[in-house]
Amino acid sequence: MNLKALDDYLERCKEYSFEWGVHDCLTFSNRAFHVMYGEGWCDDWLGRYLKNKEPIKNDQLKEEFGFETLEEGVSSKLKKIDYVPPRGALVTAKMSRRFLLGQAFGICTGTRAVFIGGKGLVYFPIDRISNAWVKE
């Protein structure tokens, strides 16, 4: 895992505005995995999670991706953890922009997690994280 590349990536995109399909929580977190690991965590989801430039609805998850919940889908790709997430872990939280089921994807940066805000990156304490996953 290349954490220096993650730091560089976060610096480059700190002022990018939220835009579905271009710079949203899914593309942001997937690119973070690209810079850390050389591959994204959800490359096969890109281009499929939006319909008419809007995120798909809960009832469309199974039809499009084959899973019933967002948690189930992410857990099919990464290892879900129930301890304090390490730096670089994929995380979800309810307080930032919403994707699919009222959750937003972000990346753990240590004692905080970073998410896409309306006008740049926003950081929340890790106690606001709902779920976390790591690459096995």
Detailed description of the structure:
By secondary structure, the protein is of the alpha+beta class. The chain contains four helices and eight strands. The protein has helices at residues 3-12, 25-37, 61-65, 70-75; strands spanning 50-51, 54-55, 79-81, 90-93, 104-108, 112-117, 120-125, 129-134. The strands form two sheets. Strands 3-8-4-5-6-7 form a six-stranded antiparallel beta sheet. α1 runs antiparallel to α2 (25-37). It is globular. The termini are close together. The model has no long low-confidence stretch (mean pLDDT 89).
Q: What attributes does this structure have?
A:
136 residues, alpha+beta, 6-stranded antiparallel beta sheet, two-stranded antiparallel sheet, 25% strand
Q: Termini, distance in Å?
A: 11 Å
**Parts with pLDDT < 50 across at least 5 consecutive residues:** none
H/E element order: HHEEHHEEEEEE
This entry's quaternary arrangement is single chain
Q: What's a concise summary of this model?
A:
25% of the residues lie in helices and 25% in strands.
Any chance you could write out the topology, listing elements then pairs?
Blueprint: H1 3-12, H2 25-37, E1 50-51, E2 54-55, H3 61-65, H4 70-75, E3 79-81, E4 90-93, E5 104-108, E6 112-117, E7 120-125, E8 129-134
Antiparallel strand pairs: 1-2, 3-8, 4-5, 4-8, 5-6, 6-7
